[in-house]
Amino acid sequence: MRHRLLGRTGLRVSELFFGAMSFYEHHGDEATRRYRAMLDAYAEAGGNVIDTASAYGESESVLGDLLIGRRDRFVLASKYTISRDQADPNAAGSHRKNLVLSLEQSLRRLRTDYLDLYWVHLWDRHTPIEETMRALDDAVRAGKILYVGISDAPAWLVSRADLLAEWRGWTPFAAVQVPYNLLRRDAERELLPMAETLGLSVAAWGPLAGGVLSGKFSAPDGIVPGVQTRIDADDLTARDHAMARAVLTVADGLGARPAQIALAWIRARHAAVHPIIGAGSVEQLTENLGAVDVVLPDDALRTLESAVEFERGFPADFLAQCEADPWVFGRTPVTGRV
């Protein structure tokens, strides 16, 4: 597995991130063995980024046990914002108090004295972004976190936050986390162009659309052994089925698995996007890791991208039309900066 730089930093991160959301059973020998085997398989493939969160049940505590003796070999990421105690109004949000208490809780659970990457889990509309950025910077200066990112937030907010950080000498966001897959390409409207312009890495959650793109629902009997999904067959729409069939067609043509095709498309579409892969078994994880060796030819990309309708909408499509119209910018083509 190849490695890239995280945003505008010197931190090396693997092409695929490992999502530990499924590590929810803290007790039980069988579960522990399964989790350890999955983490070992990911590391042996060259992966080094583990993504968890304070809100993922026992995931942090499970990882704390599994990483004893090898914690520093991984880029360990966690998140805060989601409530730690629903009866306490200050146990949720992106304000300083919740950041401090959530971070301390995560460090204890993970048995470490620092996090490599700390995500704001989602936009808290009630906390000024200035307060969040300053509190994150204080934690960086204290050595408790090394880099910061934000998940599930609008592009304008991320841009404003990074500009504030630049002006005031605070730590800027190095990465954003967004939902992104063949069925959900909304991020192409504003978030991915913003990330590219600001030099941010992108972590893509839900790259298999809850299992729709895994091939599970495309099998003749509707069952693929070992494939864990987060959606029921009855919930699928005609659009879901159309894309699942397209993925299966491309997979059959290339001798690959459907999940590998869906992940390979993300990697081919945007170089700075890192799919977050999760799994319920070593076999499923190994299959997903195989996506790094899949190269999609142009005809495969066309098949996938034409399977269902997607429009970026205004202003992206409008501005693209203007760019091509000689009435707007003249007849001399502009190819960009050298």
Automatic annotation (TrEMBL):
GO molecular function: oxidoreductase activity
Domain NADP-dependent oxidoreductase: 16-308
Enzyme Commission designation: 1.1.1.-
GO cellular component: cytosol
Species of provenance: Actinoalloteichus hoggarensis
Keywords assigned by UniProt, alphabetized: Oxidoreductase
Pfam assignment, any one: Aldo_ket_red
Keyword Oxidoreductase: yes
Protein name in UniProt: L-glyceraldehyde 3-phosphate reductase
